[in-house]
């Protein structure tokens, strides 16, 4: 998309040259006229200038410097369309145009259609010349403005007798306007002279100060400071040192524009829903009438502050009657983990309470005495966070509980690194076997990867527990095995073995 070319102080000049401005006949320049750095102005009178004539002074030098910035800006804008060398007889919409030949000619009517947008910009870029014939004419329709038309000429421009050009010609070398040529815009030459002959050159109305609120990055949340910024420009150039007040939040905030014309502040919104942000310039020392200029309002949506969230993690492996089942839940506040929160798990035979770790994870163990469908819920019973976590419950997790299989059953187990010092084994796991019906004093032998890891004796509840050390070979197994002799009959069972998560 084409953007307006910044001309700075050069925007006030109808004619600006580097080496000389010469005129023949009753030329009228509605605007300033200037030459810099070491040229002369001749032919005024009979020509007339409604503005000021600047000859090799500081104002003309600044205008030339600003023209160079504008020329570079036009030169750098990406081309949006390549059209024929001859522009007459064509209609173009806003964009940046060039010709494959590197030059443009105008021997008929070129129509520029802004499509109802008074800020639409048209830029014509050529590496060499612009030449218009006597019938050359630029017609503006649908709110197209001469102030938004720019001709970036790589060498020189020649305007034919009686032709009409609209827009600003930025020529790298020179410009010649022959008898009776009319310019609704500017003739600005960077490198050489401008030659006039009974012409009418009218500077388009200067653009005024503009304030634009920049889009807000990221979500806007109730109660959280939100960075806001606005760009202030005068005739397309940034206004530095301007005071800008942002409104729309709970309290207005003021900031000062930097060298790029950007003021940055922070607003806080106390209510969720639609809101608007507006930036007003309250003071500015620029050539534009900036003070009191207000931006278009920027609509935003303010979202409620996220509350505490508790999520039960899926249960790994089968759940059997009478077997301890590891359960865990994650507690977050505004998406961040809640550390040290007390969480109570319900749904088993007896509720169990655990504390969240640095990752916001609480882990406990529930035992189910009845087969069928069970529902597990995690509730935060205490938490020192910015969120209102206490009393928050998770969505219920439904799990199937299977009957205990055989007289000997094994609970799922997990292995972890044997910290703080991996002695005598690098890895460790807690292996659990249950006799049904319960019988105390029975020796249970445990095996991992076919290798014995130790034995334990069942307690009054028929449960034998072994804290076993494991080798790196044994942790590659996905299960463990236990054997026992009950009533003179050997029995055996297999249970799952996997890495602990979260790590212990």
TrEMBL record:
Pfam families: Ice_binding
InterPro entries with a match to the protein in the record: Big_1_dom, Ice-bd_prot, Ig-like_fold, Invasin/intimin_cell_adhesion
Family: Belongs to the ice-binding protein family.
Any coiled-coil regions, as ranges: none
Gene3D superfamilies: Immunoglobulins (2.60.40.10)
GO term, biological process aspect, one: carbohydrate metabolic process
Protein's recorded name: Big-1 domain-containing protein
Domain Big-1: 210-303, 309-392
SMART domains per UniProt: BID_1
């Amino acid at each position: 998309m084409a953007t307006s070319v910044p001309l700075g102080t050069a925007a006030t000049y109808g004619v600006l040259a580097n080496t000389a401005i010469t005129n023949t006949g009753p030329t009228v320049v509605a605007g300033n006229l200037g030459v810099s750095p070491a040229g002369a102005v001749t032919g005024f009178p009979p020509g007339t200038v409604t503005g000021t004539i600047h000859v090799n002074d500081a104002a003309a030098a600044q205008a030339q410097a600003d023209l160079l910035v504008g020329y570079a800006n036009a030169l750098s804008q990406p081309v949006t369309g390549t059209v024929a060398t001859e522009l007459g007889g064509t209609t173009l919409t806003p964009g940046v145009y060039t010709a494959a030949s590197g030059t443009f000619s105008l021997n008929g009517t070129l129509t520029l259609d802004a499509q109802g947008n008074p800020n639409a910009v048209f830029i014509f870029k050529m590496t060499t010349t612009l030449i218009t014939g006597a019938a050359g004419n630029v017609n503006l329709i649908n709110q197209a403005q001469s102030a938004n038309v720019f001709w970036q000429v790589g060498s020189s421009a020649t305007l034919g007798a009686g032709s009409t050009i609209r827009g600003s010609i930025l020529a790298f070398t020179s410009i010649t306007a022959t008898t009776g040529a009319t310019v609704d815009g500017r003739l600005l030459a960077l490198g050489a002279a401008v030659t006039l002959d009974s012409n009418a050159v009218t500077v388009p109305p200067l653009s005024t100060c503009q304030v634009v609120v920049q889009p807000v990055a990221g979500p806007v949340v109730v109660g959280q400071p939100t960075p806001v910024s606005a760009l202030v420009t005068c005739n397309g150039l940034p206004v530095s040192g301007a005071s800008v007040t942002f409104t729309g939040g709970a309290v207005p905030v003021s900031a000062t524009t930097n060298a790029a014309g950007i003021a940055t502040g922070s607003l806080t919104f106390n209510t969720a829903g639609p809101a608007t942000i507006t930036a007003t310039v309250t003071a500015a020392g620029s050539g534009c009438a900036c003070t009191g200029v207000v931006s278009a309002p920027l609509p935003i949506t303010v979202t409620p502050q996220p509350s505490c969230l508790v999520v039960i993690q899926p249960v790994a492996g089968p759940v059997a009657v009478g077997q301890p089942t590891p359960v865990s839940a994650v507690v977050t506040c505004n998406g961040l983990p809640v550390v040290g929160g007390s969480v109570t798990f319900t749904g088993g035979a007896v509720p169990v309470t655990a504390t969240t770790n640095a990752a916001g994870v609480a882990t406990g163990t529930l035992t189910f005495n009845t087969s069928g469908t069970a529902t597990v819920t995690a509730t935060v019973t205490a938490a020192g966070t910015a969120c209102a976590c206490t009393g928050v419950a998770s969505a219920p997790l439904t799990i199937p509980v299977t009957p205990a299989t055989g007289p000997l059953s094994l609970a799922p187990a997990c292995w972890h690194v044997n910290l703080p010092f991996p002695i005598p084994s690098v890895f460790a796991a807690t292996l659990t076997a249950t006799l049904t019906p319960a019988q105390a004093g029975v020796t249970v032998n445990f095996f991992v990867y076919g290798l014995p890891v130790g034995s334990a004796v069942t307690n009054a509840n028929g449960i034998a527990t072994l804290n076993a050390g494991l080798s790196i070979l044994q942790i590659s197994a996905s299960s463990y095995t236990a054997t026992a002799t009950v009533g003179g009959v050997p029995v055996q069972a297999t249970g799952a073995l996997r890495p602990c998560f979260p790590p212990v």
